[in-house]
Amino acid sequence: MQRLVVLGGGESGVGTAVLGKQKGFDVFVSDKGRIKEKYKNVLINSKIDWEEEKHSEEKILNADLVMKSPGIPDKAPLVNELLKKGIKVISEIEFASLYTRATIIGITGSNGKTTTTMLTHHILKNGGLNVGMAGNIGDSFAQMVAKNDKDMYALEISSFQLDGIETFKPHIAIITNITPDHLDRYDYRFENYIASKFRIAMNQTEDDYLIYDADDPVVRDWLDKHPVQSRLLPFSIEKTVENGAYLKDESIIINIDKQHIEMSTDTLALEGKHNLKNAMAASTVAQLVKIRKATIRESLENFQGASHRLEKVLKIQNVQYINDSKATNVNATFYALDSMNTPTVWIVGGQDKGNDYLSLMPLVREKVKAIVCLGLDNGKIIETFGSVVDFIVETTSMQDAVKISKEVAERGDAVLLSPACASFDLFKNYEDRGDQFKQAVKNL
């Protein structure tokens, strides 16, 4: 019996353990932190051996195969030990893909991947397909393969998950865009991070498809220098493309092998240029898998977006409060500010991942009337924007940040939480940060 060791007892770890046990592995789960009760119960009910708050090397280094959760860095000493011994270390996405014959749509990128994954799933489900949504969003892919395997999956995939693949091959891959993010995990070298994202296409053949943002110079330059095997289907809001999706006179045009769809943009449920691109990417997938045009159009019109992503919370005294807590990097905040069309009080800050805020300068000058910093170290934000914005203040709790924003905002303004940073300095995660914002707004 082969021994499968799972490092990390969260969603992807426990899902892998359940699938591994089903497929006849001797499974052991090890988590350096505490395992949540709901995951413990799954392990106990499935009769899977586990430990928490430690990694017992004698129980780990005898593995035949190791699945490492995405949160554990590749350079962790234990991972180095395993690799030195020649033990294969893979990601959940790789492991689960070995046990399903489903058609896989893999979606990655620095921003927009959650919305694009949800939208793709929404259209395909409305089109009557037996499709699951998993990966970096919702249930683990492995758990779905074990319990309720589908004909097709829309998978949101992070660069960390792609770092641990060997044979994984989506039939349709999407790269929404690539901007500097998580550089602390990539030796602070942007090209390492780009290479990691492009692993999504590394096993594709000419029978597969890569859908990508043709307006993104990083993606274009990489493809020029590192051609892929798959068929390229670009999308663009700046130029016409021969095969793929583009914008013409307020309509989305999708052309694939002379199959032509045209859809007006004025009824799209989601606002902003970036969501136009997400809609193009998802609609291109739908066109490839032969979903009816009417279904695609209706799905784009009735789609409810991801929570914590430009989510309108409440309007109080004619001031709109918007929760964009999912903006954990500068580029996501760029999109948020770009979509604002009223004077904005901007709540920003958190755990900085090596951010360069200069790209936001034109938008801040044009749209931001006040900045409320919410983080333990706001030095870089104050240094960048201190001379541009008249009002800039530091806070260390969400309640204070929201109260001060209310005092500064006038009728017709917006208060935008779009932190451009990770949340771990003051919050459990970005969801916790967004929930606290919504609660604080409701308490005003």
Which characteristics define this entry?
single chain, 444 residues, alpha/beta, Rossmann fold, UDP-N-acetylmuramoyl-L-alanine:D-glutamate ligase, Protein-Tyrosine Phosphatase, Chain A, 3 domains, nine-stranded mixed beta sheet, EC 6.3.2.9, Mur-like_cat_sf, cytoplasm, peptidoglycan synthesis
How would you describe this structure to a colleague?
The chain has 444 residues and is α/β, with parallel strands linked by helices. It has 3 domains: 3-90, 3-Layer(aba) Sandwich (Rossmann fold); 94-302, UDP-N-acetylmuramoyl-L-alanine:D-glutamate ligase, CATH 3.40.1190; 311-442, Mur ligase, C-terminal domain (Protein-Tyrosine Phosphatase, Chain A). The chain is built from 17 helices and 20 strands. The strands form 3 sheets. It has a 9-stranded mixed β-sheet with strand order 7-8-6-9-10-11-12-13-14, covered by helices on one side. Strands 15-16-20-17-18-19 form a 6-stranded mixed β-sheet, sandwiched between helices. The longest helix has 16 residues, at 273-288. The radius of gyration is 22 Å and the shape is globular. The relative contact order is 0.09. It catalyses: UDP-N-acetyl-alpha-D-muramoyl-L-alanine + D-glutamate + ATP = UDP-N-acetyl-alpha-D-muramoyl-L-alanyl-D-glutamate + ADP + phosphate + H(+).
